[in-house]
Amino acid sequence: MASSIKKSSAYIDAAIRNALNEDIGSGDVTTSSVIPKGHKTKAVFVAKQDCIISGLPFAKRTFELLDPGVKFSVIRKEGSRLKKGTAFASVSGDTSSILMAERVALNLLQRMSGIATLTGKYVNAVKRHKARIVDTRKTAPGLRLFDKYAVKTGGGHNHRFGLFDAVLIKDNHIDAAGGVCRAVELAKRNAGKSLIIEVETRNITEVRAALSAGADIIMLDNMPLHNIKKAVDIIRSIMPKTIIEASGGINLDNVNSVAAAGVDLISVGAITHSAQASDISMKVLPR
């Protein structure tokens, strides 16, 4: 994950700068009126509930971009499972800089830790099966890299990042193109040989069509469990190496049953679009 952050540093910096500009605007009128220039302080970050911590490199970068003189120190490493009340990082330096960057740093930590924590629950629920939990494109606009990073921190895996790095033929593509076989045929002809072709199927008829067309990945979308099992049996008997993905209507109550059906991937939009932010606070230490 460290290498992916380095490669995307410009993207990350731009997102954080935008967040800082949004929050600070023309200046922090509270801090400038209460805290004297040159005032120094130290503060700690504390988990106020059990969680998987995610976003430490991003929080650190938030302070660096506002004031390179502020020192951010990690107490518990990224991906640690924290108990309520655990101090996991500290920050020291100019008080005004720390207070101005506080909310953006916390927002990132809280959102990313919430995603990592929920992802971890799904991963734990399917741990006895081969299925991998993967994310979707249902992320906060402008924060996709942050959200997908958090999924990996929680033990999940990333699906395609965007529209550019894999072919995923969905229901609207199928209906507009004139059917599964026609859509896959066009994708194979026009998308380039290097791209994986995945097709979304809504029923067993479309599963058979996707097999006939030679899709690399077949997604079983919003199918009841008995149809998922039937589709897996059909695919394994005809094209055993085809990757099978289940998606739609997956939750913590049924994810284990879906995994037990023999799919390879389970995509869960909820881990990014519905994760509850973790409760985290920053507390200035008494002088």
Describe the fold and architecture.
This protein has 287 residues and is α/β, with parallel strands linked by helices. It contains 12 helices and 12 strands. It has helices spanning 2-7, 9-24, 29-34, 56-66, 95-125, 144-153, 171-177, 180-190, 204-213, 225-238, 255-260, 270-273; strands spanning 40-47, 51-52, 71-74, 81-82, 87-94, 132-134, 167-169, 197-201, 217-221, 243-247, 265-267, 280-284. The strands form 3 sheets. Strands 6-11-10-9-8-7 form a 6-stranded parallel sheet. Strands 3-5-1-12 form a 4-stranded antiparallel sheet, with helices on one face. Helix 11 links the parallel strand 10 (243-247) and strand 11. Helix 4 runs antiparallel to helix 5. 38% of the residues are buried. The model has no long low-confidence stretch (mean pLDDT 96).
Low-confidence stretches: none
Broad structural category: alpha/beta
State which percent range the strand residues make up: 15-25%
Helix content: 40-55%
Task: Note the run of SSEs as H and E.
Answer: HHHEEHEEEHEHEHHEHEHEHEHE
Radius of gyration: 23 Å
Describe the strand arrangement of the main beta sheet, using strand numbers: 6-11-10-9-8-7
**In total, how many beta strands?**
12
Q: Quick one: biggest sheet? A: 6 strands, parallel
Q: Return the average pLDDT rounded to an integer.
A: 96
User: What would the principal axes of the Cα set say about the shape?
Assistant: elongated
* C-alpha termini separation: 37 Å
- Tally of helical runs: 12
